[in-house]
Design brief:
Number of strands: 6
Structural class: alpha/beta
Shape: globular
Number of helices: 9
Order of helices and strands: HEHEHEHEHHEHEHH
Strand order of the largest sheet: 1-2-3-4-5-6
Oligomer: single chain
Distance between the termini: 17 Å
Largest sheet: 6 strands, parallel
Radius of gyration: 18 Å
Helix content: 25-40%
């Protein structure tokens, strides 16, 4: 038995809620040389945020994103969603300025932040806790798999115990957690990953079906026959 994100948000906010995908101009320790320069093998040049708005002004990004979906939603509300790359990978002072600007508009009812579990300092979690007292904050963590051997293959750059610790610290701060899991990684069992995430205390799960993007390491693996895409029946 599960509840869809749409139903959950309707109950929480009393109306249909859409996410506005925006870009904070971040990079990732798995790309800038801190951990690696290649990133995860499935990640695109845009940090898997192809649908995010771009630009230096967050308010303008929100307005542009809202224009794309407002015809579908009458008098609805929106969640600002920092999607591309690692959205807590900066000094807390910069994050504070950026996130507080983002939650200013009345039509923004919540803030979702996609990030890595190894990029959550105590000062950052304190900031998120303070923001959460103004408007609901959800942190979306890219776990993908709980199998550390598979994680090494996809070049994730951290052990699963780091995720477990991050969830615990976020939950202790009263912040909801959504966990990203990929279905279709080679030699992986997404059921075990899902159980692991639930046991760690995640509030929800976002399932991604593995797809192969051009100009990624995963594309090379696919062309060399080391990765196959699942059939519709296998996905189901």
């Amino acid at each position: 038995m599960y509840k869809t994100a749409s139903d959950y948000y309707k109950e929480k906010f009393g109306c249909k809620v859409y996410k506005l995908s925006i870009d904070g101009g971040f990079t990732c320790p798995n790309r800038d040389g801190t951990l690696s320069t290649g990133g995860c093998i499935f990640c695109s040049a845009l940090g898997s945020g192809e649908f995010s708005e771009r630009g230096n002004n967050i308010t303008e990004q929100l307005e542009k994103a809202k224009l794309k979906v407002e015809a579908k939603i009458k008098n609805g509300k929106y969640i600002a969603y920092f999607q591309s790359f690692t959205n807590t990978y900066a000094k807390t002072e910069r994050l504070k300025e950026l996130f507080y600007e983002t939650i200013k508009p009345d039509y923004i009812v919540g803030l979702n932040i996609a990030t890595r579990p190894d990029c959550l300092s105590e000062s950052t979690i304190d900031l998120l806790k303070n923001l959460n007292e103004i408007k609901p904050v959800t942190v979306e963590l890219g776990l993908q798999t709980s199998d550390d051997s598979v994680a090494e293959y996809i070049n994730r750059g951290y052990k699963s115990e780091v995720y477990k610790d991050a969830v615990s610290r976020l939950k202790n701060a009263g912040i909801e957690v959504i966990t990203h899991i990929i279905i279709g990684l080679p030699n992986d069992n997404p059921l075990l990953t899902t159980k692991f995430a639930i046991d760690c205390g995640t509030n929800g799960v976002k399932f991604h079906l593995l797809h192969i993007l051009k100009n990624t390491v995963l594309e090379s693996e696919y062309k060399n026959g080391r990765v196959k895409s699942l059939t519709l029946e296998e996905y189901a």
